[in-house]
């Protein structure tokens, strides 16, 4: 990118110096020490050799070979193990350049190395004191890594989550196409990306851009729906995309206010989405029983009953509305967040609702509930996420749901498949 | 020719990133009520007559987009520009513009308008349109141009009679120095803000802001750095403090006239107890500063000593025959500046120096507070130098050594004695959701939303 980065600086190489026999001893001792250091060092987690060499050369260019006192401190986010590793490496490099390490009272120069950092780089600073002169300062810098990779939560809960995909750009929805090989479809604000499962990981296969003239709303939402007669449809606010049925895969997108399907393939209920906001208007198509409107809502879960379908709507007003085709009942404060989804499992009553939780905790959780008597009962432990959930959609098949979370540590979006298993 | 580009599509998606508060989707609507101490009389981002402050930058960002923005690590990111490239030598830059954007009045954002806006803010640059791009020719090689384009003063404005921007909010009502009302743009290219409007009351003291906040009349206020810790402990509000973002320093009005005067200035610098200033006067609302840039930005600020060394200060003073009688000016409306200036005068007396406080503008040295203008360290240092009246630093390269050398040269001039780096704090009311602190202290008002639930 730009030169605003402090790139590592390379000193002019130090001219090769002939080593006299008397110097051999002075050089050999540190080298032996260095060899010992190296021998005791297990494989280094990170290779710091380059910047160690840079700093060592800069130091040696000031001090020249000879007896020095050396000390190092860590003011950076480096771990103690890394710090020790770098300290050892610096000693090795300096020794190779002819510096011997002695106590301060015997030293011709005192070297104080500080490992520091700024916003983007590690900054390694060496202050070199020689006599009564002002100390000389030399530095080396190297880019700091980005945030650590995401942590994966161990499985073993009744409600399981499995990471499908992670990327820097916001993920709106994702869907897995079973087959041989399996495919993963990922919807983001600018494209639908298709990945093929090969060599035990998802490999990019095709990217289908979404070109839109109107700006997307903030808190953009979108849903993928797998189809039988073609691969998938993608619903976005005021926009619709349809994939081709055959290869090569193409995507046709156009402005549309068509309603978005709610729930799974089992239900033929859709709802209209506001083109410039982040919620459904409340108009249902064709309706739930005799009910065709509901307060504006963020998400819905549909649970089949023997003689009707119970619809749960997480409304914009913070209430959860229960619709049975005739009556609309506000369930009060359930402690749920804005996102719910109905999933089909082979346990309990057969269908559960997955719901995010409300509150100001930046780390979200999803939990499974049942409605034995129109009041929710938690049937799983919460599954935690390392950030807030930005999407929760039921899979078209109903066998699970896809949750997208924005990882607070890494800044990346992560799509998880959530499934419910019984008896654990 | 190097080309710095991110794919257009990826860039636009970055701007849509919104971190919703836990599990509750953002709500649209509502009026966000803000109070500020600053009282700017002009909204023009390029108006150099207005005092620079974080508050002014916060206001400017709401109305005027810049071509480039800086991420939390100081890296340039596309905004109105999608990419940029420098010709060899880094003096002539091509900046490519995002298409199909408009000003608040609906007129198209053109390369002509962008060039005119940049010329108004940077008289030393030659800027001209070239198709969908603008060409910027700096007066000297400038490898940090993208970061400079992210400065608030380079917010793109149309100045044809009425001042217009391309930002997420448009001006609905403007009473200079008193009140500003902004309304959300439905057609904003980065997505409509969640709140419908923002009402900003200006010229409010910290105390008045806190009273209004406690009464629930204001959603967002500034909190004085020395009060931030106590306010947070009393749980009066959600108080968030930034990294140290403002330099408090003593600046001499003129260069040292003799070696002896240089030694006197050295004695003053050695005699100042920065730690006590921070812990007692600022209640820990900052950090002692020996350099101009804070350590989180430079990585080497610890090299500049901050500890008081009274014996050495006295010794240096005792070796000199010249008497010192400096007058020290400060902003009398700033209570923190007053107590810090008083403490500096006391410290000087302890070192055998004579410093007299004055309200006059022609003081020998002034206590100044200068906000860091950029997350890019060289750009921040260059702007600090300008604000302090120091010569422009020279960066022989892009390395940290070069930055260190430039900062050391500024300090060696003995025109400035850094005292503190001060944090910036904000009180965020319970209805305000999705507040995400940015490293440069900018308030993310286009991303916040208001909860309708009562706390």
Rounded to an integer in angstroms, the radius of gyration calculated over CA atoms of chain B is 23 Å
CATH superfamily of the largest domain in chain A: YVTN repeat-like/Quinoprotein amine dehydrogenase
Distance between the termini of chain B: 56 Å
And the CATH topology of the largest domain in chain B? Dipeptide-binding Protein, domain 3
Please name the two chains that share the biggest interface, counting residues whose Cβ lies under 8 Å from a Cβ on the partner chain: A-B, 69 and 64 residues
Which segments of chain B are poorly predicted (pLDDT under 50) over 5 or more consecutive residues?
1-22
Quantity of strands of chain B, as a count = 22
Oligomer: heterodimer
Strand order, biggest sheet of chain B? 15-19-14-18-16-17
Bin the helical content of chain A: 10-25%
Helix content of chain B: 25-40%
CATH-scheme architecture of the largest domain in chain A: 7 Propeller
Strand content of chain A: 35-45%
Largest sheet features of chain B: 6 strands, mixed
Low-confidence residue ranges of chain A: 1-29, 34-43, 147-157
Number of helices of chain B: 13
Strand order of the largest sheet of chain A: 2-1-3-4-5
Write down the overall mean pLDDT of chain A: 82
């Amino acid at each position: 990118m730009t030169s605003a980065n402090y790139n590592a600086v390379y000193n002019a190489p130090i001219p090769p110096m002939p080593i006299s026999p008397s110097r051999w001893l002075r050089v050999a001792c540190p080298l032996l020490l260095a060899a010992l250091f190296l021998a005791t060092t297990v494989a280094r987690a990170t290779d710091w050799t380059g910047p160690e060499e840079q700093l060592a050369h800069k130091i040696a260019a000031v001090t020249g070979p000879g007896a020095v006192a050396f000390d190092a401190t860590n003011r950076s986010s480096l771990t103690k193990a890394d710090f020790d590793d770098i300290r050892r490496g610096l000693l090795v490099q300096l020794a190779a350049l002819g510096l011997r390490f002695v106590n301060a009272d015997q030293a011709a120069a005192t070297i104080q190395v500080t490992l520091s950092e700024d916003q983007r780089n590690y900054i390694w600073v060496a202050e070199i004191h020689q006599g009564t002169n002002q100390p000389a300062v030399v530095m080396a810098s190297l880019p700091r890594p980005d945030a650590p990779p995401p942590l994966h939560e161990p499985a073993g809960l009744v409600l399981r989550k499995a990471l499908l995909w992670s990327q820097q750009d916001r993920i709106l929805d994702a869907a897995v196409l079973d087959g041989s090989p399996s495919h993963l479809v990922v919807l983001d604000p600018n494209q639908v990306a298709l990945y093929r499962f090969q060599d035990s990981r998802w490999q990019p296969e095709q990217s289908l851009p979404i070109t839109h003239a109107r700006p997307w709303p903030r808190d953009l939402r979108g849903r993928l729906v797998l189809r039988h007669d073609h691969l998938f449809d993608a619903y976005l606010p005021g926009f619709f995309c349809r994939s081709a049925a055959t290869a090569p895969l193409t995507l046709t997108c156009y402005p549309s206010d068509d309603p978005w399907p709610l729930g799974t393939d089992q239900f033929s209920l859709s709802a209209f989405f506001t083109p410039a906001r982040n919620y459904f208007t409340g108009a249902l198509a064709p309706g739930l029983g005799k009910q065709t409107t509901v307060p504006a809502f963020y998400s819905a879960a549909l649970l089949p009953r023997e003689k009707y379908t119970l619809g749960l709507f997480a409304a914009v007003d913070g209430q959860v509305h229960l619709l049975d085709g005739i009556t609309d009942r506000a369930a009060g404060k359930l402690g749920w967040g804005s996102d719910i989804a109905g999933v089909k499992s082979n346990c309990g009553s057969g269908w559960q609702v997955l719901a995010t939780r409300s509150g100001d905790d930046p780390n979200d959780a999803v939990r499974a509930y049942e409605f034995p008597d129109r009041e929710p009962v938690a049937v799983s432990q919460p599954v935690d996420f390392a950030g807030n959930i930005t999407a929760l959609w039921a899979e078209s098949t109903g066998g699970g749901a896809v949750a997208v979370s924005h990882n607070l540590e890494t800044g990346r979006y992560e799509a998880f498949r959530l499934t419910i298993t019984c008896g654990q | 020719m190097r080309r710095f580009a991110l794919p257009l599509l990826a860039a636009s998606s970055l701007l849509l990133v919104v971190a919703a508060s836990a599990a509750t989707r953002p709500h649209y609507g509502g009026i966000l009520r803000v109070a500020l101490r600053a009282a700017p009389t002009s909204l023009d981002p390029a108006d150099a007559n207005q005092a620079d402050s974080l508050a002014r930058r916060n206001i400017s960002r709401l109305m005027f987009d810049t071509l480039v923005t800086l991420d939390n690590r100081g890296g340039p990111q596309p905004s109105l520009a999608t990419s940029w490239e420098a010709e060899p030598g880094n003096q002539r830059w091509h900046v490519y513009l995002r298409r199909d954007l408009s000003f608040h009045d609906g007129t198209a954002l053109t390369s002509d308008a962008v060039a005119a806006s940049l010329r108004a803010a940077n008289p030393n640059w030659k800027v001209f349109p070239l198709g969908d791009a603008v060409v910027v020719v700096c007066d000297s090689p400038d490898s940090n141009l993208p970061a400079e384009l992210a400065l608030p003063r380079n917010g793109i404005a149309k100045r044809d009679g009425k001042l217009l921007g391309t930002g997420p909010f448009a001006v609905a009502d403007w009473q200079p120095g008193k009140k500003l009302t902004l309304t959300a743009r439905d057609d904003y290219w980065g997505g409509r803000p969640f709140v419908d409007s923002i009402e900003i009351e200006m010229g409010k003291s910290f105390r008045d802001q806190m009273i209004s906040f406690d009464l629930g009349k204001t959603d967002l206020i500034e909190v004085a750095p020395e009060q931030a810790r106590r306010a947070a402990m009393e749980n009066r509000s959600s108080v968030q403090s930034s990294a140290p973002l403002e330099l408090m320093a003593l600046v001499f009005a003129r260069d040292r006239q003799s070696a002896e005067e240089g030694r006197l200035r050295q004695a003053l610098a050695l005699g100042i107890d920065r730690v006590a200033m921070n812990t007692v006067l600022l209640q820990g609302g900052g950090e002692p500063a020996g350099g101009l840039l804070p350590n989180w930005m430079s990585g080497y600020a610890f090299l500049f000593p901050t500890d008081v060394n009274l014996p050495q200060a006295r010794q240096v003073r005792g070796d000199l025959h010249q008497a010192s009688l400096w007058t020290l000016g400060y902003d009398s409306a700033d209570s923190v500046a007053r107590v810090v200036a008083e403490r500096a005068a006391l410290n000087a007396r302890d070192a055998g120096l004579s410093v007299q406080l004055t309200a006059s503008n022609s003081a020998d040295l002034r206590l100044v507070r200068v906000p860091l203008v950029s997350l890019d360290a060289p750009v921040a240092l260059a702007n600090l130098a300008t604000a302090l009246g120091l010569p422009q630093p020279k960066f022989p390269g892009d390395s940290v050594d070069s930055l260190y050398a430039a900062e050391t040269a500024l300090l060696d001039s003995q025109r400035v004695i850094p005292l503190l780096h001060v944090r910036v704090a904000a009180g965020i009311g319970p209805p305000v959701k999705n507040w995400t602190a940015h490293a440069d202290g900018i308030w993310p008002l286009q991303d916040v939303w208001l909860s309708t639930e009562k706390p």
